[in-house]
Design a protein that fits this description.
The radius of gyration is 16 Å and the shape is globular. It has one domain: CheA-289, Domain 4 (OB fold (Dihydrolipoamide Acetyltransferase, E2P)). The strands form two sheets. A six-stranded mixed sheet has the order 8-1-2-11-10-9. It has a five-stranded mixed sheet with strand order 3-6-7-5-4. About 15% of the residues lie in helices and about 40% in strands. By secondary structure, it is α+β, with helices and mostly antiparallel strands. It is built from four helices and eleven strands, in the order H-E-E-E-E-E-H-E-E-E-E-E-E-H-H.
Amino acid sequence: MTEVMDRMMETDEDTLKGKFLTFFVGREEYAIEIKYVTEIIGGIQTITEVPEVPDYIRGIINLRGKIIPVMDVNMRFKKEPKPYGDRTCITVIDIDELSVGLIVDDVAEVLSIPEENIDDPPDTKAGFNNRYIKGIGKVGNTIKLILDCKILLSDEDLESFADES
């Protein structure tokens, strides 16, 4: 995990284009643009529950004096909640000056996916209706589901945290 962060920190702004952090939620591998990732916290630290938020918002953490809401991506995708294991971690992302921790099962690696290897998700008329998927990255014989961080975090629930921060 430290190696992933070290490689992220070595990259400057110009080289972030086409770079993605990949991680697992269940058996599926997802990717988010590296430009949104600020930190990866190994393990699950103490999460303070907050009343009257959706189930997928697990609560808040104190990260070096900054209060950050934490979302369980597994639950956000309406999958069965899973117990956290030794590979579970919190990936902190920044969207429009709001920091949010994403609880994921396991961080995989930082990958370059050229634009020509990214397809749009299937048309919703074809029965594919996942609003969180921004694109589908083809890497060798595998695919990575590229998440749209802005859609993932667009609920009023998260916006209310931004007001309080």
